[in-house]
Amino acid sequence: MAKAFGVNRSTIVSAMEELMSYGMIEAAYGGGTRIASNTWSLFLSSPPDWNKYISSGPFKANVPTIQVINKLEFDSKYIRLGTGEISPDLFPKTMMEDLMKVLPKRISSLNYLGPHGLPELQESLSKRLAAMGIEAKPSNILITSGSLQALQLISVCMLKPGATVFTEAPTYLKSLQVFQSAGMDLNGIPMDQSGLMYWKIEKVLQGSLLYTISTHHNPTGTIMPQGRRREIYDFCSANRLPILEDDAYGELWFDEKPPLPIKSMDKSGMILYTGTISKTLAPGLRIGWLVGPESVVDRLGDVKMQMDYGASSLSQWALTELLESGAYDDYLKTLRIKLKERRDLALDLLERYFADIAEWTAPKGGFYIWAHIKKSIPSDKLFHKALSKNILLNPGSIYDYKENRSIRLSYAYADKKDLETGLQVLSTIIKKYK
Ligand code: PMP
């Protein structure tokens, strides 16, 4: 027997009124209420409820501060004091022009490549890694579309939702987002002058991972010394805790080479290692690499084929040519000198304008100076105050919510004049803050 449902009269009346307001029903004098003649076309022309669609899917939205940074970075009125890219005036135009002349001769086609990337590039990287103490056959190397993709692949293929990822606190903000969106349980471990204080890790559950930026850390600029690298390696081996070592900045040292990557100690295949040309040369080429055991490289390569069918083959040929010709290494030598000049300028300016209002440590490479403001100014507030004076900052809170009085300053992007203006204006904002 059919079940009878009672509907309140006022519900029906308000539904009718709503349909009427959309023009979907019409009342004809003496003819009652009926479906309007144009309802079907109205229905076809009205969009689906996109808000329901766009709130689905695994990715979390960026926090509002990051959304603002992502948008305003492309507005030329802002001085970018936090940007983690080399400045357009450091871009090696002549090297790229020369490359464009020879590249067509090398390329026989720009068809899809196999799941691991361009074999010639794997071969070149294998040699380069050997010089850094890392034993990696070409079959241990996966070419990715930027090293961020390697983090993404790892989080969706190798870690179960809820798995613990130990990171430095603070850490690279996009890695935080990638792991968070994949449902990982992030466990930020405090740092000292030598990096991650591994002894603060309380419990290692099966299926966890330790993510570290061992050299020229983002955002703090710290270099983990050899001793701490060895201790972390031993600790992780003893606890069967795999390491993911992110070496995005390793080649950007100034006076002396940093210690070899932790990966160079790895005899059992417990460390995954990532590299990229985004910091040294061009994030727009979207080339990174992951080094690991063949089983891992094969699995991630297989999933990468489902994601994007391979990194840009043009970019892979370009990098292969730059590595084989030696042009990349020559360029790195000059880049290090120019970056060091910028670092020195930034330190001079900090000394001049920030001596009594902030504390910082001089970085020995990479892009960043991590400055702690002495006054109690929440870094989000400072971000908005700076924005009103056309300065774009990276507040510490986006790297770790506890870092509310720090800012990540980058000397890599803004030109020298902007760096001076930006830092001077910022110091005035801080001094005036009540
Ligand atoms: N790792 C670290 C520590 C980074 O700072 C960055 C870029 N900001 C990346 C990885 C990602 O670089 P990409 O995906 O462009 O290679």
TrEMBL record:
CDD domains named among the record's database cross-references: AAT_like (cd00609), WHTH_GntR (cd07377)
**Origin superkingdom:** Bacteria
Provide any one GO MF term from the record.
Answer: pyridoxal phosphate binding
InterPro entries on file: Aminotransferase_I/II_large (IPR004839), HTH_trans_reg/aminotransferase (IPR051446), PyrdxlP-dep_Trfase (IPR015424), PyrdxlP-dep_Trfase_major (IPR015421), PyrdxlP-dep_Trfase_small (IPR015422), Tscrpt_reg_HTH_GntR (IPR000524), WH-like_DNA-bd_sf (IPR036388), WH_DNA-bd_sf (IPR036390)
Residue span of the signal peptide, if any?
A: none
Q: Which UniProt keywords apply?
A: Aminotransferase, DNA-binding, Pyridoxal phosphate, Transcription, Transcription regulation, Transferase
**Known SMART domains for this protein?**
HTH_GNTR
* Family to which this protein belongs: In the C-terminal section; belongs to the class-I pyridoxal-phosphate-dependent aminotransferase family.
Protein's name in the database? PLP-dependent aminotransferase family protein
Q: Which organism is it from?
A: Sinanaerobacter chloroacetimidivorans
